[in-house]
Amino acid sequence: MENLLRPLIVVGGSVVLTLVIGWATDFLLRKADERHHETPLWGLLRRGRIPYQLLLCAALLRGSYDEAQLLESRREGIGQALTLVLIGSAAWLVIRIASAIVETSYTRYANARAHRDPARVRRVRTQVTLIMRVVSAIVGVVAAASMLLTFPAFRAAGASLLASAGILGIVAGVAAQSTLSNMFAGFQIAFGDMVRIGDTVVVDGEWGTVEEITLTFLTVRTWDERRITMPVSYFTSKPFENWSRGTPQMTGTVFWHLDHTAPVDAMREKLRDILRQCPAWDGRAYDLSVTDTTPNTMQVRALVTAKDADDIWTVRVTVREQMVGWLADEHPYALPRVNTADAILPPSQSQNGHRPSQDGVPHQRRFHGSTRPER
């Protein structure tokens, strides 16, 4: 009877004690979160309740397993498994606690500077994200190494591995040259302030917003909801446009190809009226000028301003659409047309400068959709 009750008491007591301590800790964190709304730390710490309870249970079982006298033939294997669970759950808990502390610090910083310096906030967010990835990687490597060292065979092979570490390091460095270059490029992006999470960029002709930055790759979300994943080394070796550098304000252009008779002055007034009714225009400046001419048309350019890249797109398409509609309704002659004319033959094949037709009447030249007799 004692041999049956002892394992139940030890194992069941460890599980029950783990659940009680875990519930009590979560209750205290929840109460602290309700009292301190100014900081999200206590709420974020609650994310670690699963690895916390797993750590408690593994520690209690590992410490009391000898007293349970359960499966004596498998004693070493079970003890080894509990040790591995203990190390893994401890690493998991450390990552969760570090993440909660870092995210709390960033949230306080962002709330204090979000309106005064949004570019700086995006830069800190990028750095914090990459730092947390590095911390997670380091903790994971240390935990994995600790797990391996619990096996006697790996401890015995440690000396030979250290002796060949130099050669292995060289081979690994050559084999992982691309990966290492991307990792160093990730640090350069994070602390060099080249590109940040939330920046509007143009890469290979694609316009989008930086959505994620890791140590090896960067994800850009385009305007049509596509995701472009690129190695971070691209941004340190090739040119790209970053529309969020400095102030987010932007100036955009709209072009029209019109007839030479287009009413430019009236178009300036219409541009002003369109912008006054466009909420995306920031009211800083606008202009309309003739920038080029060809034998058939002239090029008219409008300059408009907006507070960011999204609004400048809205202003441009609004101005383009409404101006073309206004010209088609009020000044249709200003729209470009195709000029056509009959070919002029050499004087030897013409009569008094005219090319006779079959009925003896000179051919006429077609101009802007109408006919005009040749002189």
From TrEMBL:
It comes from Streptomyces coeruleofuscus. This is Mechanosensitive ion channel. The keyword Heme does not apply. PANTHER family: INNER MEMBRANE PROTEIN (PTHR30566:SF25), YNAI-RELATED MECHANOSENSITIVE ION CHANNEL (PTHR30566). Keywords: Membrane, Transmembrane, Transmembrane helix. Gene3D superfamilies: 1.10.287.1260, 2.30.30.60. Residues 179-245 form the Mechanosensitive ion channel MscS domain. It comes from the Bacteria. It is found in: Membrane. The chain crosses the membrane at residues 6-29, 77-98, 130-151, 157-176. Residues 343-375 are annotated as: Disordered. Signal peptide: none annotated.
